[in-house]
Amino acid sequence: MTKTVHLLSVLALAALTITIGITPVVQALPTNQANQIAKDVTNFVVPEHAVNIAPGIYSLGTTIHDGKEVQGILAFHHRTGHDGGPPGNNGDDDTTNTCFASFTKGATWRATESWILDPTNNAGLTEDFLKSELANNMATWEDPDSDDIQDFDIFGDVTDGVVDGADTISPDGKNEVYFADISTSGVIAVTITWYETRGPPQNRDIVEWDQIYDDADFEWSSAGEAGKMDFANIATHELGHALGLSHPNETCTLETMYAFADDGETIKRDLHDGDIAGVNDMYS
Q: Do 156 and 224 fall into the same domain?
């Protein structure tokens, strides 16, 4: 009887140990697995842990990626007339050489990186158009008709890969572009940028960017049609965030990085003086 009781006790303790042992494994998932749980490629919701640090700008906190402490920044691109204007700093269009801002605190891209695209959308924009247009918009930032910009290919080529959703917990090493339903009212597109936070500012890297374009609440156009968002107009702005640029002062209405856009607008297809000054300031 004693042996039986002892055996049952051992088995019960073993079962309890196994049960307890399972819990930490679930709670301590590797970051990439945690990201997979959090992602949704059809709907985008601002995560609960995001902290609003400026109008339309959220901090996603810090994490460790490839041995580096990195911080995530989420930037909204609002439709004209909605909340979420830009932070009030960095000049106005009367002093266009200061009409820019950055949120990466000195961190920049130091290597050329490829990107992946999920072309699925409800707007009828073709995969060929999206690949070609995004490449053109990237070239706009890399050659803004200025002798001062560094001769550096920041954006690489589109490549094959699985777009599995924007990273709001930790970067996964992929720069992703896709369409989804953005839950926040009036938000045309979202860019998330992850950058290194430690070490001398001039040695810090931007490590990833992800972009979501809302095709649930907005119509899209390839030709600046009235009543639709012009894709090139919005994408050029979003790619500025990928480079580390933020929204300038609310008076800087002519800038590509101005926080608001409207239907049929095409002014953001090209860079304005503040945009050029901003990318030169970061990359020259």
A: yes
